[in-house]
Design goal:
- The protein is mostly helical.
- It has one domain.
- The chain has helices spanning about 1-60, 65-75, 80-100, 110-120, 125-140, 140-165, 170-190, 205-240, 240-255, 260-270, 280-300, 305-310, 320-325, 330-345, 350-400.
- The radius of gyration is 21 Å and the shape is globular.
């Protein structure tokens, strides 16, 4: 039974891995292109607005994507599609209005803040893209999901290459990205066209269902705030130029997560199925940890040539950080796998505790170390926070391991 599930997971993961490698390659080229054409100041402003809007996207998603995936994967229930979409659109409009009314925050120029307001408009197409892609993942159509992400990445890269040059500002880039995200939403809807008949099965969130989605919403929001907090705090404490250096190193590490992300993308809906044996699979543990260790070692040894080849001499200050940051891949691999394990079994509390503790750690350590030690202090804060996140989850996993098979399965 477990062997068949692992083989199916391997096939789905391979689809996602192929597309993600190509998509991440496109994203890497996009990052290099933006970093070189906008310079460290403009790239720092872009990193800030991207982090801020992605936090907004997770807030507006409110965990409904995880709920849709879980319900569709477990029992082909599409009834939450329309309520999820309407909830996301409503929250998106609220955040867009707030973004346009707020004055610039510390560390942001007027140009960067205008770009943030413009990019916030992408929350509307983000809402459509999120629910459509959740449907594909819930149906385990990883081939279509992979093709979607690959196509959008290539389209974004091509559009940026054609329309953004050294004379462009981050405002021009923001308008371009709004157009790219709108195209992504339309393409995602087209891929889901065969499922439109099921979207008529409408029922509104009941009190019980709202209670079910609330932990997922909190988890999603805490998770994206945690992943973006390092960039935001570097912006507030050190300014846009330092943010550019920090983001350059962080993007290389994110690219190294590609294989892990492919496995996680396929793993969650597979885990959500009744009687799944994948939660205790030693093969998955081995692949994740060995892969993280190999990637961390490789990046550390090649940090200097990587930065110079990818970003140029303007980003030499990123080299020391790039030798440090890859070691968060090991606790990341452990923590993310355990998080999916708990959430798929409807055990969100351990993940909430771990995320809250790691976010608090990241915030406090950044305040203590970043002003004194710069981006290296921010890097150490990120690694220690990631380690605490994985450590808390591992302790709770060991405590609950004996009852693992008794975790309630999705109804």
């Amino acid at each position: 039974m477990r062997f068949e599930q692992e083989r199916s997971l391997g096939k789905d993961s391979l689809w996602v891995l192929i597309a993600k490698l190509a998509a991440q390659g496109g994203q890497a080229v996009f990052t290099i292109l933006i970093a070189r054409r906008l310079g460290s100041q403009g790239f720092g402003e872009y990193a800030f607005i991207a982090s801020a809007v992605f936090i907004g996207n997770i807030i507006t998603t409110f965990g409904t994507d995880m709920l849709l995936i879980r319900e569709i994967a477990a029992k082909r229930d599409f009834s939450q599609f329309i309520p999820s979409l309407l909830l996301q659109l409503s929250l998106s409009i609220v955040l867009i209005v707030i973004a346009w009314l707020l004055p610039p925050l510390p560390g942001q120029s007027q140009t960067g803040w205008l770009a943030l307001k413009i990019f916030s408009l992408s929350l509307i197409p983000f809402a459509f893209f999120t629910v459509f892609s959740a449907v594909l993942r819930g149906l385990q159509r990883m081939d279509l999901y992979a093709g979607l992400n690959l196509s959008i990445s290539l389209f974004q890269l091509a559009a940026t290459f054609l329309f953004i040059d050294s004379r462009s500002s981050v405002v021009s880039l923001a308008w371009l990205l709004v157009g790219v995200q709108t195209s992504a939403a339309l393409f995602a809807g087209w891929l889901c066209r065969d499922q439109f008949v099921h979207f008529r099965r409408l029922k509104w969130f009941s009190g019980r269902e709202f209670q079910a989605v609330l932990p997922l919403a909190v988890l999603s929001i805490l998770g994206i705030v945690y992943q973006s907090a390092a960039v935001l705090m570097v912006t507030f404490l050190l300014g846009a130029v330092a943010t550019g250096y920090f983001s350059a190193a962080k993007r290389v590490v994110e690219f190294a997560k590609t294989a892990h992300l492919a496995i996680y993308t396929a793993l969650y809906p597979a885990m959500a199925k009744p009687n799944s044996d994948l939660r205790a699979s030693p093969v998955i543990w081995l692949v994740l940890i060995v892969g993280a260790l190999a990637a961390a070692l490789l990046i550390t040894l090649t940090a200097a040539p990587l930065v110079q080849i990818l970003y140029g001499k303007e980003y030499l200050d990123s080299i020391q950080l790039l030798r440090l940051l890859p070691w968060l891949l090991i606790p990341y691999a452990v923590g993310t796998f355990l998080s999916l394990m708990f959430v798929s079994a409807k055990q969100e509390k351990p993940v909430l505790i771990a995320l809250a503790a790691s976010l608090l750690t990241l915030f406090v350590l950044n305040l203590l170390w970043t002003p004194s030690f710069g981006i290296i202090g921010a890097g150490w804060a990120f690694i220690l926070a990631e380690s605490i996140h994985a450590g808390i989850l591992l302790v709770q996993y060991i405590a609950l391991k004996g009852a693992l098979n008794e975790f309630p399965q999705p109804a």
